[in-house]
């Protein structure tokens, strides 16, 4: 299994673009899978610079309905003419961020909502024996306070986003059971525990954003909470690679506790599991 970061907030190569966004190219059993699309076409431009073709991607997954993960969806649908895209049923909701009394739309391009290549799923969705999607995490431990700046507008008005549109991918190969997250708005501890149950065995590797930074103001969450999350993560045998909304400051705190159990996965990096 090989995972390459096509887009992250930071880059390890000067030739590559970076942005507040996320996109992974996953190679598993001879298949190529795209997980998230970043804010725009930068993921595709970086793929070209890395000599990675995306027209042979078998299918894609959108982790949730925010533009920093789905802004490049239109680009993908254009450059790859066949691959289906798995999205959570509520991914095209009306999602906003707020700062003081100002709100900003951060959802997806609504013109794509009825594209026939979108496969709308919910709960547990088994794609095949190696690939499972799931949503609906119910745990409430260690939720990020930065979620408070994220809203949804629906028939109940403008309210805090419960992140029902968030989904996660489990990859299984041999003894490895890998969890891939976008932002882990539901809390990485809760998601890992749910993934253990769905997979029927412990998650061996977890990759993605942990949402320990508030992107609206660009600051890490409280260091005490980061430390508590770090100690809970350290009690598992899981190996972690994190990026994006974890934030570099929070990553430094995680690293001080987890040491070589965790690493940062920036734009252009490839890991093999």
What does this protein look like?
The chain has a single domain, classed as 4-Layer Sandwich (Metallo-beta-lactamase, Chain A). It is globular. The relative contact order is 0.16. The protein has 6 helices and 20 strands. The mean pLDDT is 96. The protein is of the alpha/beta class and 273 residues long.
Quaternary status:
single chain
Order of helices and strands: EEEHEHHEEEEEEEEEEHEEEHEHEE
Uncertain spans: none
Shape: globular
The CATH homologous superfamily corresponds to Ribonuclease Z/Hydroxyacylglutathione hydrolase-like
**Fraction of residues in helix:** 10-25%
CATH class: Alpha Beta
Calculate the terminal CA-CA distance, rounded to whole Å.
5 Å
Classify the beta-strand content into a percent band.
Answer: 25-35%
In short:
The protein is of the alpha/beta class and 273 residues long.
Keywords:
seven-stranded mixed sheet; 273 residues; alpha/beta; 20 strands; Metallo-beta-lactamase, Chain A
Question: What's the layout of helices and strands?
Answer:
Layout: E1 2-7, E2 23-28, E3 31-35, H1 42-49, E4 59-61, H2 67-70, H3 73-79, E5 85-88, E6 94-99, E7 102-105, E8 118-121, E9 124-128, E10 131-135, E11 150-154, E12 157-160, E13 167-173, E14 176-180, H4 188-199, E15 205-209, E16 213-214, E17 219-220, H5 223-234, E18 239-243, H6 248-258, E19 262-264, E20 270-272
Helix pairs in contact: 5-6
